[in-house]
Structure formats: C-alpha cells, structure tokens
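Thread: Modeling a multi-component assembly for a lab meeting

Hi all, long-time lurker, first post. My supervisor asked me to bring a structural picture of a complex we are working on to next week's group meeting, and I have zero experience with this. I have the sequence lines for every component (618 residues in total). Could someone generate the structure of the whole assembly? Inputs are pasted exactly as I received them:
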Amino acid sequence: VLPILFDGIVQGLQLSLLAVGITLIYGLGGVLNLAHGQFAIVAGVAAALLLQLGFGPVAASLGGIAGAGLLGLAVDRTLMLPAYRYRGEERLLLGLILTLGFSFIVDGTLNWKFPEFSLSFQLKVPLVEFAGIPMRTASLAASAVALAIFAALFAFLKLTLTGKSIRSIIENEVGAELCGIDPARTRTLIVCLAAMMAGVAGVTQGLFSSLGTEMGPEFTILGLLVAVVGGVRSINGTLAAGILLGIVNAFASHYVGAYVAYIILLSFAMATILVRPSGLLARFT
Amino acid sequence: MKSIAGLTVVLALVPAAASGSPYYMRLATLALVYMAWTVAFNLIFGHTKQLFLCLNALAGTAGYVAVVLALQLKLSPWITVPVGVAAAAGLGALFSYVSVLRGLGVIFLGIVTLAFSLIFHNLVLGLRQLTNGETGLVTRGLGFPLLEQPVPGYYIFLAVLVGALVLYQRLMSSKSGMAFRALSDDELTAELSGIDVTWYKVLAAAVASAILGLTGALFAFYNGIVSPSVFSFVGIDIPVLIALLLGGMRTRLGPVLGAAAFALLEELVRPWGQLNVLVYGVLLIVLFTTFREGLAPVLEKAWRAVRRQRSNVVLSQINVGADGKRTMSRTRM
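Re: Modeling a multi-component assembly
Sure thing. I ran the full set together rather than chain by chain. Output:
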C-alpha cells in the first residue's frame, strides 16, 4: 500500500504544478486556459531538441522550460488581447475559445513536425531506500523540485510587493487598477510563470516515462480537473487537490484499472462543481 | 418556411448532381449529418447560451444505446433508436436542469459537459464486453436496410434535417421563440418579466439533444461501424462549433450554410492529412475574433441589396407607362 501512496504523491505534485498555472491565469486574467497542457509539451519537445543538439540534461531542461515561458509571453501579448478587451463572462467565453483554438494549433504543428516524437531522458537512475520503500531518485528529485517551486511561489505571493499586487488583482481587478496597479503587466508575468511551471511538469514527465506530442489534451484535462477540485481561485487548494487526486488516481489505477480510475477523477471534478463550486477546500488565496 | 422549402429542393437535387458516385454521396450525407447537429447546437448554444461540450457524447449515447440494444437483446431498430434518442434527450435535459439549479455559468457548464464527454469515451473503452472497446461494433445489416444504400440513406438524413429545421422554425415562431430571444439577451430580466427561464432552457436542451441523438443513432447504423473515434470530441464538437460560428449563430439557415461551408473546407484540406487539426485551431480563433456574425447575415444583406436593385430597375420601367399612384407606393418601399 505504501509504495502506491508514495507514487500517488509524486504524481500528485506534478499535477499540482500543472494545475496551479491554470488557477493563477484564471484568478488573475479571468481566462480558463485550455492550452495549458500544450505548454508542458512544448517545453518537453524543446528540451529534447536541445538534448539532440548536445546540451547536457540540466541545461536542456532549463532551456525547455524557458521556451515554454517565452511561448506564454507571446500568447499573452498577442493572442489573448481580444479577450482582455472584455470583462467577466464575455472574456471567459472568448478566452476559452481562443485558448482551445491555440491548443489545436500547437497540437497540429507538433504532430506535423514531430510525428513519432517521444522524450525520455536516458539517465541512470539508482533506486534508494526512502522510509523503507525503494524509490527512484528521479521521482524524489522531481518531487523536491515541485515542492521548492511551491515554496518559492508562496513566498513570492506573500512577501514581495509584486506578489501582493497579484493577490490584490485576484481579489478585485478594478480595485487594484484604481490603486495604481497595472493588471496587464502583472498578467503577462503570471502567464509566463504559469507556462514555465507547466514546462517543469512536462520535462519531469520525460524523466518518469516518455512524453509524446499527442499528450497535450490529456495534460490540459488533468490540470483542469485538479484546478476545479481545488477551487479555481485558490493556490494552496490546488496544491492539496493535486496530491489528493494523485493518490486517488494511483490507488484506483492499481485496483480497478485505468479507465475506471479516469472516470472516478472526472466524476470527482463534476461533483465538486455541482456541490462546492468554490472548491473542495476552504477558499484561501 | 419558404426558405426551408427552397433549401429542401436544393438539397434534394444533390444526388442527381453527384450522379450516384458513392464517394460524393457519402460526403453529401456526412454534410447533412453535420447540418442537423449544428441546427441542434444552435438551439443550445446560440439561443439559450448553454455551452454543451458533449455533443459527441449525446450523439454517441444514442448511437451506442441503439446499436448495443439491437445486438444484445435482438430488438428491432424501430424500438432501439427511439430508446437511444430518449436517453440523449434525458441526459441533455438533466445537464441543463442541473446547471440552472446550481447557477453554473457558461464556463462551469462547459467543464461539466466536457467531463461527461470524457466519461462517455472512457465508459465505451472500459465496457469492452458490450462495446468491443477501441475496435467498435459492426452495424452493417443490423439497422434499416434502406439506410445503408447511398441514395435512400441520403434522403433519410435529408428528412431528419428538414424535420429538425421545421421543428426549429415552429419553436422560434411560437411563444418559446420569444422566450429564447429574451433570455439570451438578459436572463434576469427575462425571469423578472415572467418567463420561466428554467423550463425554456431545459426545453431547448432536450429538443436539441433529441435531434443530436436521432442523427447520431441513424449515423451509427448508416456508417456500418460504431467506435469511439466515430463519436470523438475533435470529430464532432469542434467541427459543429466552427460550422455554427461560420454560418452565424441565432440564424435559421446559418447552421446549414456553415456546415456546408465546413464540409467543403475539410475536403480542401484533406490532402494535407494531419494538418486539419491546425486548420481547426486557426479557424476557431479567426472566426471568433473577426467574424462573430457569420455567413448568414452577410448573405442576407447581399441578397436584399440585389433585390432592391432589381426592384429599382422594375420601377423605372413602370414609371414610363403605369399610373403614378402605384409607382409612388412602390418607391416608398
């Protein structure tokens, strides 16, 4: 039982990393990003290309993550502009369609350019004993990276002035604007950061198993489910929901099979929206 | 009604133009299927602003229920198709009712229905003993023999499309049409002026889901095989959304025009293989940002302009010989 639990937590942290970007972009930009998984894939593909060019694994990973960040920057500054002109429901709908369209463009381009692509780092990963369970060092390293990123994110939001202004925009965009905060610049920063966090999740996926160009929609859906269960505006809710769903998924896949596990996750998200639309856990930004 | 009759005549002539080529007949039939689906989606999304991202699952539920019941219980398709349609209509009504009850916005209804679409997909894959998983079930010889021949099959789907359009027209020209218009402008105001918003939203969702289901069930038999890829999200929901945007939301003939234009477009990009996904993405973005009105209003305006010019020509001819009174009244038009 314990190895399944740990496996679930390791996967869950990656899910949180993916979902927290959706949460941030939704909270701050008022856009539900349906191309989020594609950022992860782009990072993975970029990392693999850099590996082929002869860069080391660490440099390639960082390069891939930076690539996802650049793509996020470009999307925010060009594609999303029509959506940002509106507010509320209208912006949500337009943002949803625009990001859905963008996800198809990314999927189509990647499938066309790299049809038989898969990224996996051929690293020698020794097994270590952790709390009496054999674990792959890669899993431990990925989890440590995810936790470090979350710690940095919390510190950034709580302690720095930029972080505080981000939280104020999530609270009330018009109010923050009246206090002299520029929502557009903060938004760009957040979209960039969110894309990079998705990039980390994508590159880590390459560490565990392999990453294919067709996995974008799956990543987006998983991130979306976690963000919804965590309450699409709450960051630590997303972290908790990711770990929870990771564990649920690990146990369900082990005992009842992958299809039923996926159906359980989906029903979980559906039930959350219907019963507690603000998220399973108390709202706290 | 006149425009529906005109459209029916035009579409009825298609088999003659295709001169019995099975390839073109199949393309034309597929276009009819997408037209019917888009008419249904226009009711749900266009008129009552409910973003259903589970068109594939609704059509697929009806399709799989009809086929599996016919296979397992050896029932006639005359019984199983209505059962499938009822299942789809019930599910659509349920989603609509729950979303009104819980006050879900466009986005949350979108996520709930998207989750349902994925649940449907995984259920079909998981219930292997009933659905045969990814491979799917062979439906040839199982349904209506007439449906499997190219030309009669085409006319059956044409009948379904015309039925859907007439039903749409009846709804829109009755009290419910007024309610749809009111609630798509402002739901709260509609509710305050005594319109039962819940009832009309559920009605629109149920009727549209029934149309989706009927077309889906018949398509399952027509196609010769049902598999998860026949009722996929990218294969149904995205094309229908694009067709509706292309043709024009909240218009009578927009869905038909849009689906026809989309079918043509897809035939054009077919040689490039995998690139159709990329084209879908570009289309979604371009249509939603620059062409929100759609084809139908543009064509209607052009048609009116042509008619005005023509009647001007007629008027100047009348002016020469006919009585002035009549000319005056015509000029004022």
